[in-house]
Design brief:
Oligomer: heterodimer
Largest sheet of chain B: 6 strands, mixed
Strand order of the largest sheet of chain B: 6-7-8-3-9-10
Strand content of chain A: under 5%
CATH topology of chain A: MetI-like fold
CATH superfamily of chain A: MetI-like
CATH superfamily of one domain in chain B: P-loop containing nucleotide triphosphate hydrolases
CATH class of chain A: Mainly Alpha
Order of helices and strands of chain B: EEEHEEHEHHHHEHEHEEHH
Number of strands of chain B: 10
Number of strands of chain A: 0
Order of helices and strands of chain A: HHHHHHHHHH
Radius of gyration of chain B: 20 Å
Low-confidence stretches of chain B: none
Low-confidence stretches of chain A: none
CATH class of one domain in chain B: Alpha Beta
CATH topology of one domain in chain B: Rossmann fold
Shape of chain B: flat
Helix content of chain A: over 70%
Distance between the termini of chain B: 50 Å
Helix content of chain B: 40-55%
Structural class of chain A: mainly alpha
Mean pLDDT of chain B: 87
Number of helices of chain B: 10
């Protein structure tokens, strides 16, 4: 057997400089953690923290057993909540689809003007939470379901618009090229070349957003935009903890069901 | 008849894909366009229907110069040119029938195509074409449910649905196995001779080109370096197109493949008895 002597037996993943930098990085991270911990504990009132388990147990005991007869008062607000979520999603889709086509690089009619506007609409809608939209809208159009529906749809534009325009940009250009080579008009290319390719993404995104909207619309009532949140706020204000637990369980059940539906629909599409 | 006159294409990156290509394709002639990767075969085909904009030169289809058309006139003229693609380029999530009917998009108003209510003559023609390419029973299947060879047949039917005067065929067999490749090439050449359709076929496979094409055009670095019948494609000619290579060995390889295929077919026939 011939001995291999001319090749090195040492190989390292990082250069010496890289190793030094990695150690420095970890050191900085530990220092940051220690520093943050110090700031956090400085402002904490330890009496409250020590008290926490007792307080939690106290509220827990007041919440149990849930006052089940209260459920009969909740069906109407639950129906409102579902309506806010569903109508809000539909409204959001209607506004988001044109925005998405304006924002996608391969379908926008003007990269210089319309695309930035569409992107701005998406960012603006995404950066403001539904609860804040609802707060603004309750102030503008008054409390009630309508404010909730509009808040949900305004928040949905950004989410649906962003995911949809990314789906449009990821379409297969060969299929689009083939349709345009037949002499089709721009609209026909959109209809035959692009829309079939984004349909699964479109339904997936829409159902996913509907599922998120169910969760978000349960709390919109806290600021007066109707639905279960209104009842939650009422019960919290009157310290009716056994009613709060019924509402929380109902929200949990609703979210589980909506998530199950959304998972089923998305599974069927993909 | 198609005539290219001094066609050149330089991409924005500064790469010259085509320089001064002059070529004329008479009615009913099938031309095989061969050349190494990057020789400009695909660019040449795409310049003709202006999926790629040529930098200069004339593209005469009949008496229309395609190179000088505006957007809407170009759209009208594209209906006269059927195109068949390397990876079929069917709209995968549409049915076979919708794909074939999409060849009629240039002729129908938007509302008809949107509602899928095509004129009866278009539908009849689509069925006739599906029957011609042997896919009658697959009309309502989704395109992505078909095999490679079947998809390329749909691609051919879509191109023919346009009622074209010229076929542009871009590597029709590059994603197919040798047997299916030959079937597709045979179908293409039969259809072209039935209809007197001229065609330009980009093709990588030199023996396949020699077997099926009436005329071979060799491109190298964007220039035509060979133009003649397949039997003039000698070792010297191949060397001018592709550079130095042991051409006899390659031919031998192809013969071996053909023999192996024949043998396999024989064995299958025995098994089938």
């Amino acid at each position: 057997m011939t001995e291999i002597t001319t090749y090195k037996q040492v190989w390292s993943y990082r250069t010496p400089r890289g190793r030094l930098l990695a150690w420095a990085g970890w050191l900085a991270l530990v220092a940051l953690f220690v520093w943050c911990w110090q700031i956090m504990t400085e402002r904490t009132i330890w009496a409250f923290v020590q008290d926490a388990p007792r307080q939690a147990a106290d509220i827990g005991s007041r919440m149990l057993p849930p006052r089940w007869p209260y459920l009969s008062e909740l069906w109407a607000p639950l129906w409102d909540t579902l309506n806010i979520a569903t109508l809000g999603t539909i409204g959001g889709v209607f506004m988001a689809v044109p925005v998405a086509f304006l924002a996608a690089r391969n379908t926008t009619p003007s990269v210089a003007i319309l695309r930035p506007i569409a992107l701005f609409i998406i960012v603006a809608s995404r950066s403001i939470n539904s609860l804040i939209w609802a707060l603004l809208l309750v102030a503008i159009i008054g409390p009630g379901l309508l404010a909730g529906i509009i808040a949900i749809s305004l928040r949905s534009i950004g989410f649906i618009g962003k995911l949809l325009y990314e789906a449009i940009e990821e379409t297969d250009t060969k299929q689009i090229e083939a349709v345009s080579a037949t002499g089709a008009t721009g609209l026909q290319v959109l209809n035959y070349g692009i829309v079939p390719q984004i349909m699964p993404a479109f339904w997936g995104i829409t159902v996913f957003r509907w599922d998120i909207n169910i969760r978000e619309s349960t709390i919109l009532g806290l600021v007066g935009a109707g639905g279960l949140g209104l009842k939650l706020q009422g019960s919290l204000n009157t310290l009716a903890w056994s009613q709060v637990s019924v509402i929380l369980l109902l929200i949990l059940a609703t979210v589980v069901v909506s998530e199950w539906i959304s998972a089923k629909v998305r599974h069927a599409l993909i | 008849m198609l005539t290219l006159d001094g066609l050149s294409k330089t991409y924005k990156t500064g790469d010259t894909a085509l320089s001064d290509v002059t070529l004329s394709v008479p009615k009913g002639q099938i031309i095989g366009l061969i050349g190494p990767s990057g020789a400009g075969k695909s660019t040449l085909i795409r310049c003709i229907n202006r999926l790629v904009e040529p930098t200069s030169g004339k593209i005469m289809l009949g008496d229309v110069n395609l190179a000088s058309l505006g957007k809407s006139d170009l759209r009208q003229q594209r209906r006269r040119i059927g195109m068949i693609f390397q990876e079929y380029a069917l709209v995968e999530r549409l049915t076979v029938m919708e794909n074939v009917l999409s060849g009629r998009l240039g002729y129908v108003p938007f509302w008809r195509s949107f509602l899928r209510r095509f004129p009866a003559t278009d539908i009849q023609r689509a069925y006739q074409l599906l029957d011609r390419v042997g896919l009658m029973e697959h009309a309502d299947k989704r395109a992505d449910a078909l095999s490679g060879g079947q998809r390329q047949r749909v691609g051919i039917a879509r191109a023919l649905a346009q009622g074209p005067e010229l076929l542009l065929v871009d590597e029709p067999t590059a994603s197919l196995d040798p047997k299916t490749s030959r079937q597709i090439m045979r179908l293409l050449t039969e259809i072209c001779s039935e209809r007197g359709l001229p065609a330009i076929v980009n093709i990588h496979d030199v023996p396949l080109a020699q077997q099926f094409m009436q005329r071979i055009v060799g491109l190298r670095a964007g220039r035509v370096v060979f133009d003649g019948p397949p039997d003039m494609l000698t070792r010297e000619a191949l060397t001018t197109i592709y550079g130095e290579e042991d051409w006899n060995a390659m031919r031998q390889g192809d013969e071996e493949q053909a023999e192996a295929e024949a043998e396999a077919r024989g064995r299958l026939a025995v098994l089938a008895q």
